[in-house]
Write a structure and sequence with these properties.
Order of helices and strands: EEHEHEEEH
Number of domains: 1
Helix content: 10-25%
Shape: globular
Strand order of the largest sheet: 2-1-3-4-5-6
Strand content: 15-25%
Distance between the termini: 12 Å
Number of helices: 3
Structural class: alpha+beta
Number of strands: 6
């Protein structure tokens, strides 16, 4: 199970990623990482190979969500918004066992990324349903 803040320590070497990782080469996605409950599990850079390892290593009941760094949303401007609602509103990539979903077009700076991963494009509403109904 992906648990809250699990990547905070280097001991959680799951998927070969750790909180605060930074890559200097290749195309990467910088962002915040969340689980299926909307709990923050870590942050950092993810290379394409990291995303593939996550996709291949998740269990059937796990889901990994990336909210990219360019999303500049203040999380607690509305105290009535739950963690899961925040994640549903701002998710960009959702990873499940064997699948990667992209919820919107990549920003211009990523337009030349050689995305060799098999993304399934989702509308934002479809992504919200996936997150809400995932169990």
């Amino acid at each position: 199970m992906l648990t809250k803040a699990m990547f905070r320590t280097r001991e959680s070497n799951r998927f070969g990623i750790a909180e605060g990782m930074m890559w200097n080469t290749g195309r990467i996605l910088k962002g915040l990482w969340y689980n299926q409950a909307g709990e923050w599990i870590g942050y950092g850079d993810l290379a394409m190979s990291d995303i593939e390892r996550i996709r291949d290593g998740l269990l059937e009941d796990e889901l990994f969500v990336l909210i990219p760094e360019w999303v500049r949303v203040t999380r607690r401007t509305n105290p009535n918004v739950t963690d899961l609602e925040y994640v549903m509103e701002n998710c960009f990539i959702i990873i499940t066992r064997g699948k990667i979903y992209q919820t919107s077009d990549l920003p211009r700076e990523y337009s030349d990324v050689p995305w060799h991963l098999s993304f399934e494009l989702q509308t934002h509403e479809a992504a919200k349903r996936l997150l809400r109904d995932f169990r």
